[in-house]
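Our consortium's second objective concerns turning raw sequence data into structural hypotheses that experimental partners can test. To show how far this objective has progressed, the report includes one record in full. It was chosen at random from the queue rather than selected for favorable results. The single chain below, 343 residues long, was entered without modification.
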Amino acid sequence: MSVIKSFKPYLTVLLLISVVFMSGLVGCASSNKISEAINYPADIPQPYLTLEQVIEGAQDSPEGLFSRFLGMIVGPERKFTLNQPTDMVVDQKGRLLIVESEAGYISIYNEVEGEWVNSERVRLSEILHPTSIAAGPDKIFVSDLMGGTVHILDYEFNLVGTMNHADMQRPGGLCYDGHSNRLLIADPPANRVFVFSPGGEYLAQLGRGGHSQGILQSPIAITVDAANGDIYVLDGMARKVKQYNPDFQFINSFGEYDQVPGSFAFPKGIALAVDGTLFVGDGAFGNIQMFDPTGALLFYFGETGTEQGQFLMPRNLFIDQEQRLFVADPYNNRVQIFRYFAQ
């Protein structure tokens, strides 16, 4: 593959937030199936990706400090529901679960004739500020940024347990490791990844010892190769993707800070396709970059903006078994869904 699009890094978060205020995106939202395919790249017969749907929710009252602030600026009639979605997962029942971090909800979507349709919103009083979500065969896991813990829910959204550790500070990105049947928890200020059993038993941690290159500075997100169990950790402060084997031994890393294709400025999300392609979202660049397992840049798409296929500080990424790439686009208050055609 070759790098095709132009690269436009945007490093000032204030500028990105101001785009939200200046745009009309904070209005009555909807869940839109893309009527005309948007392909990436656009000029070849067999694209790498196609934008399939943009989920924005439905009209509702604004909740949370950020939403109330927007309401003072754009007026009370400009309302939305998907309130800063920061993560999503497709569970074993085939439901799409979206964490609305600002409002504190989990929105539940079911697929109807190829389109994700909202069926319910769940809010648990025990979860103060949900940020990330993962799903195992019979459990759902939600990290609570303010509570400093990870909550364990059953598939009916009943709270059945918690995960915490004396060294855990602000658990963030979650990844259920189906290869080894365990949950991986990224904790940026603790500079490590915590490992628990699905039932909540502490097992191990990585990022503090071993090979010097395997030490983590600020792990943001995690993905696991279902075929061999290799673990890929997105280390935000180091601007690197670090690879470990299932026994947490460091294998390799790639990435550096820069403002050119193949580098990172403010990486926030990572996902792994079935063909070994790694997707990394960068909030500063407003795009998604694609790498082969060695770290070679294959392609990238998106740019900062509010139109379909553009992003405002994209957050977590998730790829389901059908190779659909879900991108949390929190400051556009939406999730964008792409179909990836494995190479």
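The partners drew two points from this record. The two ends are 9 Å apart (CA to CA). The chain has one domain: 13-64+71-86+164-340. Both points have been shared with the crystallography group to help prioritize constructs.
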